[in-house]
Write a structure and sequence with these properties.
Radius of gyration: 26 Å
Distance between the termini: 67 Å
Strand content: 15-25%
Order of helices and strands: HHHEEEEE
Number of domains: 2
Largest sheet: 5 strands, mixed
Number of helices: 3
Shape: rod-shaped
Length: 142
Amino acid sequence: MNPAWVWFGLMALALIGEVMSGTFYLLMVAVGFAVAGLAAWLGAGIAWQIVLCAAAVVLSMLLLKRLNVLKKRGGAPSRNANVNMDIGQTVKVEAWSEDRTARVWYRGAHWQAELAPGVEPVAGLYVIKEMRGNSLVLAPQD
């Protein structure tokens, strides 16, 4: 059996794993397997196939890191609208207390709300900027 087909089979398994995991790492491993498969098909020895596979994986990882594809995104979950569906929602504040907190009606219940730093406590519409425990951090609606 031609060793190229082994590499291409491993590439297919890595691609299936990539689809299931949703990361870019297995995709880069699949690229390495494809390069090693091409090397085997062209008649390179097993040592060169392994070296080329490893080099392709490392170079593709460095390329993705350079392009910021592997960069962690989103920041803290308490402020990330992709993680917390409450971020960006609007609530109405009737009145603020002296300690810059209020009780607001949101999603069918009363919530404790805090005023974001540097904001004047005025009644009106506010946007949820962060969740701190079970307290909403609010900023004025623009």
